[in-house]
Design a protein that fits this description.
By secondary structure, the chain is an alpha/beta fold. It is built from 26 helices and 21 strands. Helix 7 packs across helix 9 (249-275) and helix 9 (249-275) crosses helix 26. It binds adenosine-5'-diphosphate and magnesium ion (MG).
């Protein structure tokens, strides 16, 4: 009965083999201490297995080799010598003809072996006496390693794997797996542990037959147990290249199952969210929203109108919105968030807006309070830098419900902050936050607070499930493959249009040697009434050094541009000073702002039209795009100068060329994904817990469509199969995906 019985998944507690002191064929152990064995050793090995994430038998079964050693064939020594220098390991067998310790150029063991076809030298620079004895003259040895060509000593192997055998001993008929491991877990141990788990773990098919024969028919998936057995212990005639490239049908089955688990998990948490209740806040005419729109000094772009509609519809529903608002830097996401907040406030709820840095949070606060306070809305600011008293006051306003909109940093999610009636939480630059932080803000809605105001108190059981609507915003576009996988549980709205009247930013690459010309350029821009950002190099190794560089740059510019007002902002500045400098720059009291990457996200000063980025080659593409997005916000022609230090590395050159060629955030994200892989995109979303170990979105994206189809069918028709599959693949890790 495929697909119905969940795996019985025993803990591995007492089923592990004791650590071997050398394997049964008598291969040398790991020298002194290897024989200590017994209980202490066993539990420490288990602890290490747990660290690798190998807790259950099925986890071990799904721990797959990264490569193989071919011990299935023997080459005559002469043939092996013939292939020397190809860099490929070979295995030969021969009888020891001499065994001597030589002391020149340093102490080493030199062993010669011979067969009917030739002679070979084995050289060991570190060796135990017992090893030397094992290779006494007359012993037959099976030897595996890379041959180095000729020279004075003839062909030789340095530190080969050596095993005494009886002449003619049978060769294994399977490739030997090499597993990903950590220090302290020898391969021999892993092989035994995994082999044992494989033989005792039943692996019933989790894919129901109608799914295999229906949407997946074209894939012709191999059964999982066969695939696993093949990967752990491939027959010698296997297409080894296909195993290594992971294109073999056995790999395809594994990758498919993994992608399916991901889809099931994401879709199930999405469904679970839809089952929860949230306060419906349909848009109503004549309230704050209407007044705000009427007061806006500009018209929304078509794209903004569209996403505002999408969000309004979500918020009108009695289920929590879980929407990502994506729009390139400068596309106008803030106003969209403000409109959503108005809709919540109109319905009698509070809204919260959380941003990753104080500078950004404060800027949002200034902007939104300037928009909304004239309309009678109390907006409070909550950040770590607030004095205790101010913080208490703000928190009190939030708790009493007097503050309708709270804007801040992580301070918003501290335990001391309680909302009277939180209905909407907005997270700006969402990729900067961890899953836990976003969950915490959502959790700020007290059960009864999130219930409709007129029904508070009634039906507490249902109200306990209520969560606020959630809007996440990001300027980092998610490439399609990621959107389909890691973000499959999100509804996405895209602002694909910039407000009118923007002139595209012109990007130039400038050799660091031409710094004087750059300074001259700054001078000109300021003389024309423009403002300038000067971004200091990123120094990842040392924050102190980065600070020092920023201060030096600041002093150089102050000296070089005596008639201009230059400011400096960096991460170590006390928040109040930081805010003061930003305020001065916003108000055009400073013409030049020297900054570390603290200005990376969200800062909005339309009059700034020149951006200088020093050592641009040290920044990632996404970062450069964010930085460059600080200019080109007004109608003046804007320029971004990327200064670099020659010579550039190939990837450095590629990155900077990308920046020069395009200002399209999606295109940049796509190339970034190519250059760096998905890991960095996902940031905190998957930190520590790589959801996809086997599938590679660069090569396996085509499988995702199938996984989506199968997931949909399984979720509607085969709930037990869903459980069994998720248990097998995710075990207890699923909660990470729920945010
Ligand atoms: P981002 O999407 O990067 O967060 P912002 O919300 O900071 O962008 O908006 C960038 C700038 O564009 C702001 O100065 C904002 O007031 C302005 N803006 C937003 N929407 C429009 C619009 N429809 N027309 C003109 N200017 C707009
Ligand atoms: Mg923004």
């Amino acid at each position: 009965m495929p697909g119905t019985a969940p795996d019985p998944i025993p803990e591995t507690t007492d089923s592990l083999p004791a650590e071997p002191a050398g394997d049964k064929a008598g291969r040398p152990g790991k020298g002194p201490g290897a024989a200590k064995g017994a209980a202490g050793k066993l539990s420490s090995a288990m602890a290490r297995l747990h660290k690798l994430g190998l807790k259950r038998d099925v986890d071990m079964v799904l721990h797959l080799p990264m490569r193989y050693e071919d011990e299935t064939t023997l080459l005559p020594i002469a043939d092996a010598i013939h292939r020397a220098g190809l860099g490929l390991p070979v295995q030969v067998e021969g009888v020891v003809t001499s065994n001597a310790v030589s002391f020149r150029p340093r102490r080493q063991l030199v062993v010669k072996i011979a067969d009917d076809t030739g002679e070979l030298t084995l050289r060991f620079l570190n060796f135990y006496g017992s090893q030397a004895q094992q290779m006494a003259e007359g012993t037959c040895l099976r030897v595996r390693g890379e041959l180095r060509g000729g020279g004075f000593f003839g062909a030789e192997m340095v530190h080969p794997t050596v095993r005494p055998v009886t002449p003619g001993e049978a060769l294994p008929d399977r490739l030997t797996p090499v597993y990903p491991s950590t220090a302290g877990i020898p391969q021999t141990y892993l092989r035994k542990a995994i082999g044992g788990a494989l033989s005792r773990t039943p692996l019933p098919e989790t894919l129901p037959l109608p799914v295999l024969k229906g949407p997946l028919a074209q894939l012709k998936l191999q059964p999982l147990p066969d695939s696993l057995r093949l990967l752990h212990s491939p027959p010698q005639d296997v297409d080894e290249a296909a195993l290594i490239e992971r294109s073999h049908p056995a790999w395809q089955r594994i990758k498919f199952d993994e992608l399916l688990a991901q889809q099931l998990s994401l879709k199930r948490s999405q469904a679970a969210r839809r089952d929860k209740s949230a306060p419906p806040m349909p848009r109503r005419a004549g309230g704050l929203l209407t007044a705000f729109l009427a007061a806006l000094p500009f018209k929304l772009t078509g794209a903004q109108q569209r996403v505002v509609e999408e969000i309004a519809r979500d918020m009108g529903a009695p289920h929590p919105m879980h929407r990502l608002l994506q729009g390139d830097v400068g596309s106008g996401k803030t106003i969209v968030a403000a409109l959503a907040a108005c809709q919540a406030i109109d319905a009698g709820y509070q809204a919260a807006l959380m941003a990753p840095t104080e500078i950004l949070a404060e800027q949002h606060y200034r902007k939104l309070s300037a928009w909304l306070e004239p309309l009678g809305v109390t907006v409070v600011w909550l950040a770590g830098s607030l004095k205790a008293r101010a913080k208490r006051e703000a928190a009190a306003q939030v708790e009493s419900g007097e503050a309708k909109l709270a804007i801040g940093t992580h301070a918003l999610i501290q335990d001391s902050v309680k909302f009277a009636r939180l209905g909407l939480s907005v997270v700006d630059e969402q990729h900067r936050f961890g899953v836990a932080q976003r969950l915490a803000l959502r959790g700020k809605a007290e059960p009864d607070a999130a219930a409709p105001p007129d029904k508070a108190g009634k039906g507490a059981g249902k109200a306990a499930e209520a969560v606020p609507h959630q809007l996440m915003m990001s300027a980092t576009p998610i490439p399609r493959t990621l959107a389909m996988t890691y973000y499959a549980d999100l509804d996405v709205s895209v602002i694909d249009e910039l407000p009118p009247g923007r002139t595209p930013v012109v990007t130039r690459l400038v050799n660091d040697a031409r710094r004087d010309e750059v300074i001259e350029r700054v001078h000109h821009a300021a003389a024309d009434g423009r403002q300038v950002y000067w971004v200091c190099p990123l120094i990842e190794e040392s924050e102190a050094l980065q600070l020092q560089t920023a201060v030096e740059t600041y002093e150089t510019l102050v000296a070089a541009l005596p008639e201009l007002k230059v400011g400096l902002v960096h991460g170590r500045l006390p928040p109040a000073e930081k805010a003061a400098v930003m305020e001065d720059f916003t108000a055009n009291r400073l013409q030049v702002l020297v900054a570390t990457t603290v200005i990376e996200v969200g800062v909005d000063v339309p009059n700034a039209s020149l951006m200088v980025i020093e050592h641009a080659e040290r920044f990632g593409l996404a970062q450069l795009h964010q930085l460059r997005g600080r200019v080109g916000r007004g109608s003046a022609e804007s320029v971004c100068l990327l200064m670099y230090q020659a010579p550039l590395s190939p990837t450095g050159r590629e990155r900077l060329a990308t920046m020069r060629e395009t200002t399209d955030g999606f295109e940049i994200a796509r190339r970034d994904l190519q250059i760096r892989g998905p890991g960095e995109f996902l940031g905190a979303r998957q930190s520590g817990e790589a959801m996809l170990r086997f599938a590679d979105l660069n090569t396996d994206a085509w499988l995702v469509d199938y996984a989506q189809d199968a997931a949909e069918l399984m979720l509607t028709r085969y709930p037990e199969a869903v459980e069994a599959h998720l248990l097998r693949w995710l075990g207890g890790r699923e909660h990470f995906l729920k945010a």
